Amino acid sequence: MPTIDLAYVGRGLHEELVAYIADQEDLYAAEDVQVALHDGCAWDIERLRRGATIGLGRALLSRLADGTPWVALTVNTDRPLFWFLARSGTSLTDLAGKRLAVHAPHTPPGCFARIVLRQAGLDPDRDVDCVVRPPGDYGMDLRRLRSGEIDAAYVGSTMAPEAVAAEHGWQLLAWVGDHFRIPTVGVAVDPTYVSPDDPAVQAMVRAHRRALRVVHDDPDTTVRHLRTFLGGQTEAEARAHYDRFIAPYFTTDGQADLTIGAAGIAAIAAELGVPETVTAEQFYRTEHP
Fold it and tell me: Is residue 98 domain-shared with residue 147, that is, in the same domain?
């Protein structure tokens, strides 16, 4: 049985759900491949290049910034699962002058946040007091929101933020996926070290596409697995999260929309202040019937 290393570079169901379903539902075994899943959150790009990665956003930033020739082979969603959660307010414009806990500007989630803030007419460097904190430190964000140390937090998919907001009387100001779209998670490889056509890679891609079918065809199984990542939420809250953010927006076949990809690449390059050195056709491999 061939083997392949696969690393996630962010925590939460945004990165891990499809791979987790493929593992737990024996879809890797059904495709006769052994996948070793690694926590690559702290890995540098050089280490990530030696295997496959789930983080298409990080791979894209690497390709734009340093020319690493990543290729995305399958896509789970083009609606990034990040939210702006605030103690009060009704829209993103209410963040003006407020303290926002957020990812660093040159990380994919931080870049997404800045793009969305600019769309709302806010300069993230002048209009908002951005408090940069480590990715995934969302539990600390909730403590700081409760204490009033910060006014808002940009959080990821280790929680169901709509349920957290309801519990504490806070406000969910915006979901990034409503404002900015880019294929962000799936499977990518650097052909320098891992051929996209390697049998193990192709078997893993097939398993992930089967897992995407589970997401759409078997809500009960998907919600059961969702609760692994949403341990602080009830089954009803996890199902509501699935119905709102997962079922309508995860792909059924792992294919990237190249028009959405092109617009996303252009926006990322502009935010980073780097040349748009890769096209959607070059970065996202698609299959045509």
Answer: yes
